[in-house]
Amino acid sequence: MGKRAKPAKRLFTKKEKSKKTLANKPIANAFSDANSAVASSIDTSRTNLKTEELLIVSSAEPKKPEMKAEEDIKKINAEAQNEIKQELRILKDVSPNEYFILATGAPLKNIKELVDALDYMDQGVFEYHVNSEKNDFAEWIRWSLNEQELADTIRELSTIKETQNTIMKHLVRKYL
Asked: For residues 34 and 113, what is the distance between their CA atoms, to the nearest angstrom?
């Protein structure tokens, strides 16, 4: 007799295979597997939520003490730099509208130029600016160079050499 034909294998879809796999297991195991999958999914969701909550909370937390200290240091440094700039203003040129114009018409832009001008200044020019009624140099030093202490000191002086020496001593004591 002839050979017997083999039965054809049936092909299953993925959906059918999973049903078949679940069908082969006892029902309790199938529920257990399904519960495990759901529980795992819930745990993953909780972890993601906790991570998001941590991110939200951490961005709303107050600044750390180290950050506060750094900000304080930056603020102090900025204030110190402003003070230094203000202090050194006496050594820099003033703006053109603050130049001191001598009776001769020569402009003075800074304290060094005043000290140099006093070296060759005629007594008549000096007395025009410094007399019993006024001291133009003291006023210029006070308002344009922002040096009140020096202005108060030279206000009472009445000679070229006293004024020049007092300015130089002030600069040496304060800046050197």
From this structure: 93
